[in-house]
Amino acid sequence: MMTVVKEPAAPAISAPWAMRDKIAFAGIGTTRYGNFPATDSYGLGCEALNAALDDAGLRPQDIDGLIVNRIPSYERFAEMMGINPQFCLLTEAPGRFSGVSLALAAQAIASGAAKTVALVYGNNGRSVRMRYGGGDSQWSPWGMTSPGASHAMMWRRHMHEFGTSHADLGPVAVAFRHHACLNPEAVMHGRPISLEDHAQARPICEPLKLLDYCLINDGAVAWIMTSAERARDMPRPPVLLSGYARQDAFHYGSAPPDDFWYPTLSACRSVYDRAGFGQDEIQGLGIYDNFSPTVLFSLEGLGFCKQGEGGAFVRDGTLRLGQGRWPTNTSGGHLSDSYMQGWGIIAECVRQLRHECGDRQIKDVHAMQYICATNIAQSLILRRDR
Amino acid sequence: MSLANRPKPVIDNWNRPFWEACGKEFLLLQRCTATGKCFFPPAPVSPFTGRPDWEWIKASGVGELWSYVVFHQGYFDGMKDELPYPVAMVKLAEGPFLLTNLLDLTPDQVKIGMKLRVRFGEGPENLVLPQFGPMG
Known about the structure:
The complex is a heterodimer.
Chain A: E1 23-30, H1 41-56, E2 65-69, H2 74-81, E3 87-91, H3 96-111, E4 116-123, H4 147-162, H5 170-181, H6 195-200, E5 203-206, E6 208-209, E7 219-227, H7 228-231, E8 239-248, H8 262-267, H9 270-275, E9 284-287, H10 293-301, H11 310-314, H12 333-336, H13 343-353, E10 367-372, E11 376-384
Parallel strand pairs in A: 2-3, 2-4, 9-10
Antiparallel strand pairs in A: 1-7, 1-8, 4-7, 5-6, 8-11, 10-11
Chain B: H1 16-23, E1 28-32, E2 38-39, E3 54-58, E4 62-71, E5 85-92, E6 97-100, E7 115-122, E8 128-134
Antiparallel strand pairs in B: 1-2, 1-3, 4-5, 4-7, 5-6, 7-8
Protein backbone atom coordinates (compact mmCIF):
# COMPACT_ATOMS: atom_id res chain seq x y z
CA MET A 1 0.00 0.00 0.00
CA MET A 2 1.31 3.39 -0.99
CA THR A 3 0.35 6.43 1.05
CA VAL A 4 0.24 9.62 -0.91
CA VAL A 5 0.38 12.76 1.19
CA LYS A 6 -0.70 15.81 -0.71
CA GLU A 7 -0.48 19.27 0.78
CA PRO A 8 -3.78 21.11 0.76
CA ALA A 9 -3.88 23.95 -1.73
CA ALA A 10 -3.83 27.44 -0.23
CA PRO A 11 -7.30 28.78 0.51
CA ALA A 12 -8.68 30.59 -2.50
CA ILE A 13 -9.45 33.66 -0.39
CA SER A 14 -8.89 33.87 3.34
CA ALA A 15 -10.02 37.42 4.00
CA PRO A 16 -13.45 38.22 5.48
CA TRP A 17 -16.11 37.95 2.85
CA ALA A 18 -18.06 40.99 1.71
CA MET A 19 -21.28 38.94 1.39
CA ARG A 20 -21.13 37.36 4.86
CA ASP A 21 -24.67 37.15 6.29
CA LYS A 22 -25.99 39.64 3.69
CA ILE A 23 -28.15 37.18 1.73
CA ALA A 24 -30.96 34.99 3.11
CA PHE A 25 -33.33 32.19 2.24
CA ALA A 26 -36.86 33.60 2.56
CA GLY A 27 -38.84 30.65 1.21
CA ILE A 28 -38.47 26.94 0.53
CA GLY A 29 -40.73 24.63 -1.45
CA THR A 30 -40.47 20.96 -2.27
CA THR A 31 -42.84 18.58 -4.05
CA ARG A 32 -43.64 15.00 -3.29
CA TYR A 33 -40.93 12.62 -4.56
CA GLY A 34 -41.51 9.51 -6.68
CA ASN A 35 -42.72 8.51 -10.15
CA PHE A 36 -45.16 11.00 -11.67
CA PRO A 37 -45.69 10.35 -15.39
CA ALA A 38 -48.80 12.59 -15.43
CA THR A 39 -46.66 15.74 -15.01
CA ASP A 40 -43.15 16.84 -16.04
CA SER A 41 -40.31 19.06 -14.84
CA TYR A 42 -42.35 22.19 -15.63
CA GLY A 43 -45.37 20.95 -13.68
CA LEU A 44 -43.20 19.86 -10.77
CA GLY A 45 -41.22 23.12 -10.88
CA CYS A 46 -44.43 25.17 -10.73
CA GLU A 47 -45.62 23.09 -7.77
CA ALA A 48 -42.35 23.64 -5.87
CA LEU A 49 -42.25 27.35 -6.68
CA ASN A 50 -45.85 27.84 -5.52
CA ALA A 51 -44.96 26.14 -2.25
CA ALA A 52 -41.93 28.41 -1.85
CA LEU A 53 -43.95 31.53 -2.70
CA ASP A 54 -46.57 30.55 -0.11
CA ASP A 55 -43.80 29.93 2.41
CA ALA A 56 -42.31 33.38 1.74
CA GLY A 57 -45.68 35.16 1.55
CA LEU A 58 -44.98 36.32 -2.02
CA ARG A 59 -46.75 36.29 -5.40
CA PRO A 60 -45.09 35.51 -8.77
CA GLN A 61 -44.94 39.22 -9.65
CA ASP A 62 -42.79 39.87 -6.58
CA ILE A 63 -40.02 37.78 -8.18
CA ASP A 64 -37.53 39.87 -10.19
CA GLY A 65 -34.83 37.23 -10.60
CA LEU A 66 -35.24 33.65 -11.84
CA ILE A 67 -32.80 30.76 -12.16
CA VAL A 68 -34.10 27.43 -13.44
CA ASN A 69 -32.28 24.09 -13.53
CA ARG A 70 -33.17 20.74 -15.20
CA ILE A 71 -36.26 22.48 -16.61
CA PRO A 72 -35.78 22.72 -20.39
CA SER A 73 -36.55 26.43 -20.96
CA TYR A 74 -36.31 29.37 -18.56
CA GLU A 75 -38.45 31.34 -21.00
CA ARG A 76 -41.33 28.87 -21.08
CA PHE A 77 -41.16 28.40 -17.32
CA ALA A 78 -41.27 32.16 -16.71
CA GLU A 79 -44.15 32.44 -19.18
CA MET A 80 -46.08 29.71 -17.34
CA MET A 81 -45.62 31.37 -13.96
CA GLY A 82 -46.23 34.90 -15.22
CA ILE A 83 -42.79 36.11 -14.13
CA ASN A 84 -41.05 38.89 -16.10
CA PRO A 85 -37.78 39.33 -14.21
CA GLN A 86 -34.80 41.64 -14.69
CA PHE A 87 -32.35 38.76 -14.10
CA CYS A 88 -32.95 35.29 -15.54
CA LEU A 89 -30.97 32.26 -16.64
CA LEU A 90 -30.90 28.49 -17.06
CA THR A 91 -27.95 26.74 -15.40
CA GLU A 92 -26.21 23.52 -16.49
CA ALA A 93 -27.69 20.14 -15.54
CA PRO A 94 -24.97 18.58 -13.31
CA GLY A 95 -25.66 18.71 -9.58
CA ARG A 96 -22.68 20.94 -8.90
CA PHE A 97 -24.88 23.70 -10.33
CA SER A 98 -27.17 23.80 -7.30
CA GLY A 99 -24.41 25.52 -5.34
CA VAL A 100 -23.30 27.52 -8.37
CA SER A 101 -26.87 28.75 -8.89
CA LEU A 102 -27.11 29.70 -5.23
CA ALA A 103 -23.92 31.77 -5.50
CA LEU A 104 -25.10 33.43 -8.72
CA ALA A 105 -28.36 34.44 -7.03
CA ALA A 106 -26.45 35.79 -4.02
CA GLN A 107 -24.19 37.81 -6.30
CA ALA A 108 -27.18 39.14 -8.23
CA ILE A 109 -28.87 40.28 -5.02
CA ALA A 110 -25.66 41.75 -3.57
CA SER A 111 -24.94 43.70 -6.76
CA GLY A 112 -28.49 44.99 -7.13
CA ALA A 113 -29.19 43.02 -10.32
CA ALA A 114 -32.28 41.59 -8.60
CA LYS A 115 -34.00 41.95 -5.24
CA THR A 116 -35.82 38.65 -4.89
CA VAL A 117 -34.60 35.60 -6.80
CA ALA A 118 -36.58 32.39 -7.27
CA LEU A 119 -34.43 29.34 -7.98
CA VAL A 120 -36.37 26.38 -9.36
CA TYR A 121 -35.16 22.85 -9.96
CA GLY A 122 -37.44 20.26 -11.57
CA ASN A 123 -36.52 16.69 -12.50
CA ASN A 124 -38.70 13.99 -14.06
CA GLY A 125 -35.84 11.56 -14.62
CA ARG A 126 -37.73 8.63 -13.14
CA SER A 127 -40.86 8.82 -15.27
CA VAL A 128 -38.91 9.42 -18.51
CA ARG A 129 -36.50 6.57 -17.62
CA MET A 130 -33.46 8.82 -17.65
CA ARG A 131 -30.21 6.83 -17.94
CA TYR A 132 -26.98 8.22 -16.61
CA GLY A 133 -24.61 6.47 -19.02
CA GLY A 134 -24.40 5.09 -22.55
CA GLY A 135 -24.04 6.97 -25.83
CA ASP A 136 -20.94 7.64 -27.87
CA SER A 137 -18.18 9.47 -26.02
CA GLN A 138 -14.42 9.77 -25.68
CA TRP A 139 -14.27 6.50 -23.75
CA SER A 140 -17.31 4.56 -24.98
CA PRO A 141 -15.32 2.16 -27.25
CA TRP A 142 -13.87 0.67 -24.07
CA GLY A 143 -17.28 0.50 -22.41
CA MET A 144 -16.46 3.31 -19.98
CA THR A 145 -19.52 5.40 -19.20
CA SER A 146 -21.64 6.80 -16.36
CA PRO A 147 -20.85 9.02 -13.36
CA GLY A 148 -21.09 5.95 -11.11
CA ALA A 149 -18.21 4.24 -12.94
CA SER A 150 -16.07 7.34 -12.56
CA HIS A 151 -16.68 7.31 -8.80
CA ALA A 152 -16.03 3.55 -8.67
CA MET A 153 -12.67 4.19 -10.36
CA MET A 154 -11.80 6.80 -7.74
CA TRP A 155 -12.93 4.63 -4.85
CA ARG A 156 -10.81 1.67 -6.05
CA ARG A 157 -7.80 3.98 -6.09
CA HIS A 158 -8.65 5.34 -2.64
CA MET A 159 -8.82 1.74 -1.37
CA HIS A 160 -5.36 1.14 -2.83
CA GLU A 161 -3.75 4.33 -1.54
CA PHE A 162 -5.24 4.37 1.95
CA GLY A 163 -6.32 0.82 2.71
CA THR A 164 -10.01 1.67 2.77
CA SER A 165 -12.64 -0.84 1.61
CA HIS A 166 -16.16 -1.15 0.25
CA ALA A 167 -17.29 -1.83 3.81
CA ASP A 168 -16.14 1.68 4.78
CA LEU A 169 -19.01 3.04 2.66
CA GLY A 170 -21.61 1.02 4.54
CA PRO A 171 -22.03 3.40 7.51
CA VAL A 172 -22.72 6.24 5.05
CA ALA A 173 -25.53 4.38 3.27
CA VAL A 174 -26.98 3.00 6.51
CA ALA A 175 -26.97 6.39 8.30
CA PHE A 176 -28.74 8.13 5.43
CA ARG A 177 -31.32 5.33 5.17
CA HIS A 178 -31.93 5.65 8.91
CA HIS A 179 -32.62 9.36 8.35
CA ALA A 180 -34.98 8.56 5.44
CA CYS A 181 -36.89 6.30 7.83
CA LEU A 182 -37.39 9.35 10.08
CA ASN A 183 -38.61 11.40 7.10
CA PRO A 184 -42.13 10.54 5.91
CA GLU A 185 -41.50 12.33 2.58
CA ALA A 186 -38.43 10.26 1.67
CA VAL A 187 -38.64 7.80 -1.23
CA MET A 188 -37.05 5.11 0.95
CA HIS A 189 -39.12 5.85 4.07
CA GLY A 190 -40.02 2.62 5.82
CA ARG A 191 -37.29 0.58 4.14
CA PRO A 192 -34.39 0.33 6.62
CA ILE A 193 -31.10 -1.31 5.58
CA SER A 194 -28.21 -2.90 7.47
CA LEU A 195 -24.46 -3.00 6.84
CA GLU A 196 -25.04 -6.56 5.63
CA ASP A 197 -27.57 -5.31 3.05
CA HIS A 198 -25.00 -2.78 1.84
CA ALA A 199 -22.30 -5.43 1.54
CA GLN A 200 -24.56 -7.93 -0.23
CA ALA A 201 -26.22 -5.51 -2.67
CA ARG A 202 -26.12 -6.16 -6.40
CA PRO A 203 -22.87 -4.88 -7.92
CA ILE A 204 -23.40 -2.10 -10.46
CA CYS A 205 -19.86 -1.03 -11.27
CA GLU A 206 -17.45 -2.65 -8.82
CA PRO A 207 -16.25 -1.71 -6.33
CA LEU A 208 -19.59 0.13 -6.02
CA LYS A 209 -22.91 -1.65 -5.45
CA LEU A 210 -26.55 -0.66 -5.63
CA LEU A 211 -26.74 0.98 -2.19
CA ASP A 212 -23.76 3.23 -3.02
CA TYR A 213 -25.79 4.81 -5.83
CA CYS A 214 -28.24 7.70 -5.58
CA LEU A 215 -31.91 7.23 -6.40
CA ILE A 216 -33.49 8.38 -9.64
CA ASN A 217 -36.90 9.93 -8.93
CA ASP A 218 -39.15 12.78 -10.00
CA GLY A 219 -39.60 15.90 -7.94
CA ALA A 220 -38.79 19.58 -7.67
CA VAL A 221 -37.32 22.08 -5.24
CA ALA A 222 -37.59 25.87 -5.14
CA TRP A 223 -35.76 28.41 -3.03
CA ILE A 224 -36.49 32.11 -2.71
CA MET A 225 -33.48 34.21 -1.85
CA THR A 226 -33.32 37.90 -1.02
CA SER A 227 -31.29 40.28 1.12
CA ALA A 228 -31.11 39.50 4.83
CA GLU A 229 -32.59 42.92 5.46
CA ARG A 230 -35.68 42.22 3.34
CA ALA A 231 -35.99 38.66 4.66
CA ARG A 232 -36.33 40.00 8.22
CA ASP A 233 -39.61 41.65 7.18
CA MET A 234 -40.98 38.42 5.72
CA PRO A 235 -42.99 35.68 7.49
CA ARG A 236 -40.39 32.93 7.88
CA PRO A 237 -37.28 33.07 10.10
CA PRO A 238 -34.44 34.05 7.73
CA VAL A 239 -31.61 31.59 7.16
CA LEU A 240 -28.42 33.46 6.28
CA LEU A 241 -25.71 32.59 3.79
CA SER A 242 -22.71 33.11 6.05
CA GLY A 243 -19.99 31.81 3.75
CA TYR A 244 -19.46 30.28 0.33
CA ALA A 245 -16.24 28.95 -1.21
CA ARG A 246 -15.55 27.32 -4.53
CA GLN A 247 -12.52 26.02 -6.38
CA ASP A 248 -12.73 24.44 -9.82
CA ALA A 249 -10.36 21.91 -11.39
CA PHE A 250 -10.73 20.97 -15.04
CA HIS A 251 -7.33 19.44 -15.73
CA TYR A 252 -8.23 15.75 -15.44
CA GLY A 253 -7.98 14.93 -19.15
CA SER A 254 -11.64 13.84 -19.34
CA ALA A 255 -10.78 10.90 -17.03
CA PRO A 256 -11.87 10.35 -13.41
CA PRO A 257 -9.99 12.73 -11.09
CA ASP A 258 -6.73 11.23 -9.81
CA ASP A 259 -6.73 13.20 -6.54
CA PHE A 260 -10.25 12.70 -5.06
CA TRP A 261 -10.59 16.51 -5.46
CA TYR A 262 -8.57 16.80 -2.25
CA PRO A 263 -6.66 19.95 -3.29
CA THR A 264 -9.77 21.83 -4.43
CA LEU A 265 -11.92 20.69 -1.49
CA SER A 266 -9.07 21.77 0.79
CA ALA A 267 -9.12 25.18 -0.87
CA CYS A 268 -12.81 25.38 0.11
CA ARG A 269 -11.76 25.39 3.79
CA SER A 270 -11.73 29.16 3.22
CA VAL A 271 -15.50 28.90 3.78
CA TYR A 272 -14.82 29.11 7.55
CA ASP A 273 -12.92 32.39 7.21
CA ARG A 274 -15.67 33.68 4.99
CA ALA A 275 -18.38 32.73 7.48
CA GLY A 276 -16.38 33.99 10.44
CA PHE A 277 -16.64 30.76 12.43
CA GLY A 278 -15.32 27.22 12.30
CA GLN A 279 -16.40 23.61 12.57
CA ASP A 280 -16.85 23.83 16.34
CA GLU A 281 -19.88 26.07 15.84
CA ILE A 282 -21.55 23.90 13.19
CA GLN A 283 -24.05 21.20 14.25
CA GLY A 284 -24.89 19.34 11.04
CA LEU A 285 -23.87 18.70 7.45
CA GLY A 286 -25.38 18.36 4.01
CA ILE A 287 -23.06 16.47 1.66
CA TYR A 288 -23.63 15.91 -2.05
CA ASP A 289 -24.01 12.12 -2.14
CA ASN A 290 -24.49 11.12 -5.77
CA PHE A 291 -22.37 8.10 -4.80
CA SER A 292 -21.36 7.13 -1.28
CA PRO A 293 -17.57 7.77 -1.76
CA THR A 294 -18.12 11.51 -2.26
CA VAL A 295 -19.21 11.75 1.38
CA LEU A 296 -15.81 10.50 2.53
CA PHE A 297 -13.96 12.63 -0.05
CA SER A 298 -15.89 15.67 1.25
CA LEU A 299 -15.13 14.96 4.92
CA GLU A 300 -11.44 14.44 4.14
CA GLY A 301 -11.18 17.46 1.85
CA LEU A 302 -12.80 19.89 4.28
CA GLY A 303 -10.60 18.61 7.11
CA PHE A 304 -13.14 16.81 9.31
CA CYS A 305 -10.60 13.98 9.37
CA LYS A 306 -7.23 13.32 7.75
CA GLN A 307 -7.00 12.18 4.16
CA GLY A 308 -7.53 8.45 3.92
CA GLU A 309 -9.23 8.24 7.32
CA GLY A 310 -12.80 8.88 6.14
CA GLY A 311 -13.80 5.25 6.57
CA ALA A 312 -12.62 5.07 10.18
CA PHE A 313 -14.14 8.50 10.86
CA VAL A 314 -17.71 7.42 9.99
CA ARG A 315 -17.52 3.83 11.29
CA ASP A 316 -19.07 4.43 14.71
CA GLY A 317 -22.12 6.39 13.59
CA THR A 318 -20.53 9.84 13.25
CA LEU A 319 -23.02 10.80 10.52
CA ARG A 320 -26.05 9.34 12.25
CA LEU A 321 -28.61 11.63 13.88
CA GLY A 322 -28.91 11.13 17.63
CA GLN A 323 -25.64 9.23 17.74
CA GLY A 324 -22.74 11.04 16.09
CA ARG A 325 -21.16 14.51 16.24
CA TRP A 326 -21.96 15.21 12.56
CA PRO A 327 -25.55 14.34 11.60
CA THR A 328 -25.41 14.43 7.80
CA ASN A 329 -28.13 14.45 5.15
CA THR A 330 -30.87 14.26 7.75
CA SER A 331 -33.60 13.94 5.09
CA GLY A 332 -31.91 10.80 3.72
CA GLY A 333 -29.86 12.55 1.03
CA HIS A 334 -29.62 11.46 -2.59
CA LEU A 335 -29.07 7.88 -1.52
CA SER A 336 -32.36 7.51 0.37
CA ASP A 337 -34.54 10.65 0.31
CA SER A 338 -34.61 12.06 -3.21
CA TYR A 339 -32.18 12.73 -6.04
CA MET A 340 -32.66 16.47 -6.29
CA GLN A 341 -29.00 17.13 -7.14
CA GLY A 342 -28.08 19.19 -4.10
CA TRP A 343 -31.20 21.36 -4.26
CA GLY A 344 -33.05 19.15 -1.77
CA ILE A 345 -30.04 18.79 0.52
CA ILE A 346 -29.66 22.57 0.76
CA ALA A 347 -33.45 22.88 1.36
CA GLU A 348 -33.05 20.39 4.22
CA CYS A 349 -30.25 22.51 5.72
CA VAL A 350 -32.58 25.53 5.64
CA ARG A 351 -35.41 23.55 7.26
CA GLN A 352 -33.08 22.27 9.96
CA LEU A 353 -32.09 25.85 10.74
CA ARG A 354 -35.76 26.85 10.96
CA HIS A 355 -36.30 23.91 13.35
CA GLU A 356 -39.03 22.40 11.14
CA CYS A 357 -37.70 18.86 10.85
CA GLY A 358 -39.80 16.99 13.39
CA ASP A 359 -38.43 13.53 14.19
CA ARG A 360 -35.22 14.23 12.32
CA GLN A 361 -34.52 17.64 13.87
CA ILE A 362 -30.94 18.31 14.99
CA LYS A 363 -31.40 19.69 18.49
CA ASP A 364 -30.55 23.37 18.93
CA VAL A 365 -28.94 23.60 15.50
CA HIS A 366 -27.81 27.08 14.56
CA ALA A 367 -25.36 26.48 11.70
CA MET A 368 -25.14 23.91 8.90
CA GLN A 369 -22.47 23.27 6.28
CA TYR A 370 -22.99 21.97 2.73
CA ILE A 371 -20.17 20.34 0.74
CA CYS A 372 -20.09 19.26 -2.89
CA ALA A 373 -17.15 17.15 -4.14
CA THR A 374 -17.04 17.54 -7.92
CA ASN A 375 -14.82 19.25 -10.51
CA ILE A 376 -16.45 22.40 -9.14
CA ALA A 377 -15.66 21.85 -5.45
CA GLN A 378 -17.84 23.95 -3.17
CA SER A 379 -18.85 24.48 0.40
CA LEU A 380 -21.29 26.85 2.00
CA ILE A 381 -22.27 27.64 5.56
CA LEU A 382 -25.79 28.66 6.53
CA ARG A 383 -26.92 29.91 9.92
CA ARG A 384 -30.00 31.05 11.78
CA ASP A 385 -30.43 34.78 11.98
CA ARG A 386 -29.34 35.97 15.47
CA MET B 1 -18.40 -11.18 -28.26
CA SER B 2 -16.57 -9.00 -30.71
CA LEU B 3 -14.84 -5.66 -30.53
CA ALA B 4 -16.60 -4.80 -33.81
CA ASN B 5 -19.82 -4.40 -31.79
CA ARG B 6 -18.26 -1.87 -29.42
CA PRO B 7 -19.69 1.67 -29.23
CA LYS B 8 -18.10 4.13 -31.64
CA PRO B 9 -15.65 6.78 -30.48
CA VAL B 10 -16.43 10.42 -31.16
CA ILE B 11 -13.85 11.33 -33.79
CA ASP B 12 -12.94 14.98 -34.31
CA ASN B 13 -10.19 16.90 -36.09
CA TRP B 14 -7.90 16.63 -33.08
CA ASN B 15 -8.12 12.92 -32.25
CA ARG B 16 -8.33 11.59 -35.83
CA PRO B 17 -4.50 11.10 -36.02
CA PHE B 18 -4.65 9.07 -32.77
CA TRP B 19 -7.19 6.65 -34.27
CA GLU B 20 -5.27 6.45 -37.55
CA ALA B 21 -2.12 5.57 -35.61
CA CYS B 22 -3.98 2.80 -33.73
CA GLY B 23 -4.66 1.30 -37.19
CA LYS B 24 -0.88 1.12 -37.62
CA GLU B 25 -0.57 -0.37 -34.12
CA PHE B 26 1.04 2.44 -32.20
CA LEU B 27 -0.14 5.09 -29.74
CA LEU B 28 0.19 8.69 -30.80
CA LEU B 29 0.32 11.47 -28.19
CA GLN B 30 0.64 15.24 -28.30
CA ARG B 31 3.68 16.73 -26.56
CA CYS B 32 3.84 20.38 -25.56
CA THR B 33 6.99 21.83 -27.12
CA ALA B 34 7.39 24.47 -24.38
CA THR B 35 7.16 22.11 -21.39
CA GLY B 36 7.92 18.70 -22.91
CA LYS B 37 4.82 17.30 -21.21
CA CYS B 38 2.34 15.05 -23.03
CA PHE B 39 -1.44 15.40 -22.90
CA PHE B 40 -4.57 13.46 -23.88
CA PRO B 41 -7.30 13.64 -25.22
CA PRO B 42 -5.98 15.44 -28.31
CA ALA B 43 -6.66 19.18 -28.38
CA PRO B 44 -5.89 22.24 -30.52
CA VAL B 45 -3.58 23.73 -27.88
CA SER B 46 -1.33 22.61 -25.03
CA PRO B 47 -3.13 22.76 -21.66
CA PHE B 48 0.18 23.77 -20.07
CA THR B 49 0.54 27.00 -22.09
CA GLY B 50 -2.78 27.45 -23.88
CA ARG B 51 -0.77 27.79 -27.12
CA PRO B 52 -0.90 25.67 -30.31
CA ASP B 53 2.73 24.70 -29.78
CA TRP B 54 2.86 20.90 -29.69
CA GLU B 55 4.06 17.93 -31.71
CA TRP B 56 2.88 14.36 -32.19
CA ILE B 57 5.10 11.71 -30.66
CA LYS B 58 4.94 7.93 -30.83
CA ALA B 59 4.28 6.77 -27.27
CA SER B 60 6.08 3.82 -25.69
CA GLY B 61 2.83 1.87 -25.30
CA VAL B 62 3.80 1.12 -21.70
CA GLY B 63 1.89 2.26 -18.64
CA GLU B 64 0.92 1.49 -15.06
CA LEU B 65 -2.46 0.28 -13.82
CA TRP B 66 -3.74 3.25 -11.81
CA SER B 67 -7.24 1.91 -11.03
CA TYR B 68 -9.94 -0.32 -12.49
CA VAL B 69 -13.65 -1.10 -12.27
CA VAL B 70 -15.85 -4.01 -13.31
CA PHE B 71 -19.11 -3.19 -15.10
CA HIS B 72 -22.04 -5.42 -14.13
CA GLN B 73 -24.68 -2.99 -15.34
CA GLY B 74 -24.91 -2.83 -19.14
CA TYR B 75 -25.13 0.52 -20.94
CA PHE B 76 -24.27 -0.56 -24.51
CA ASP B 77 -26.20 -3.10 -26.62
CA GLY B 78 -22.98 -4.14 -28.38
CA MET B 79 -21.35 -5.11 -25.07
CA LYS B 80 -24.13 -7.17 -23.47
CA ASP B 81 -22.23 -10.39 -24.16
CA GLU B 82 -19.10 -9.05 -22.46
CA LEU B 83 -20.72 -8.37 -19.06
CA PRO B 84 -19.22 -8.28 -16.54
CA TYR B 85 -16.26 -6.48 -18.14
CA PRO B 86 -13.34 -4.50 -16.70
CA VAL B 87 -12.34 -0.95 -17.55
CA ALA B 88 -8.87 0.14 -16.48
CA MET B 89 -7.39 3.58 -15.91
CA VAL B 90 -3.80 3.36 -17.14
CA LYS B 91 -1.20 6.03 -16.51
CA LEU B 92 1.02 6.03 -19.57
CA ALA B 93 4.79 6.27 -19.10
CA GLU B 94 4.51 9.66 -20.85
CA GLY B 95 2.09 10.95 -18.16
CA PRO B 96 -1.48 11.05 -19.53
CA PHE B 97 -4.21 8.64 -18.46
CA LEU B 98 -6.09 6.34 -20.84
CA LEU B 99 -9.28 4.49 -20.02
CA THR B 100 -9.04 1.08 -21.64
CA ASN B 101 -9.66 -2.63 -21.12
CA LEU B 102 -7.48 -5.37 -19.61
CA LEU B 103 -6.53 -8.44 -21.64
CA ASP B 104 -4.77 -11.73 -20.84
CA LEU B 105 -5.08 -11.30 -17.08
CA THR B 106 -7.11 -13.35 -14.61
CA PRO B 107 -8.90 -11.31 -11.92
CA ASP B 108 -6.40 -12.40 -9.23
CA GLN B 109 -3.48 -11.23 -11.38
CA VAL B 110 -4.81 -7.68 -11.58
CA LYS B 111 -2.82 -5.45 -9.20
CA ILE B 112 -2.86 -1.67 -9.06
CA GLY B 113 0.60 -0.40 -9.90
CA MET B 114 1.42 -3.29 -12.26
CA LYS B 115 3.16 -2.46 -15.52
CA LEU B 116 1.10 -3.00 -18.66
CA ARG B 117 1.74 -2.92 -22.38
CA VAL B 118 -0.64 -1.93 -25.17
CA ARG B 119 -2.24 -4.48 -27.52
CA PHE B 120 -4.19 -3.69 -30.65
CA GLY B 121 -7.35 -5.52 -31.70
CA GLU B 122 -10.20 -4.96 -34.13
CA GLY B 123 -12.71 -2.32 -33.09
CA PRO B 124 -15.98 -0.74 -34.21
CA GLU B 125 -16.31 0.53 -37.79
CA ASN B 126 -12.93 -0.82 -38.93
CA LEU B 127 -11.14 1.03 -36.15
CA VAL B 128 -8.40 -0.62 -34.13
CA LEU B 129 -8.92 -0.46 -30.37
CA PRO B 130 -5.90 -0.19 -28.03
CA GLN B 131 -6.20 -2.35 -24.92
CA PHE B 132 -3.65 -3.29 -22.27
CA GLY B 133 -2.20 -6.55 -20.99
CA PRO B 134 0.83 -7.78 -19.03
CA MET B 135 4.34 -6.74 -20.11
CA GLY B 136 5.16 -10.37 -21.04
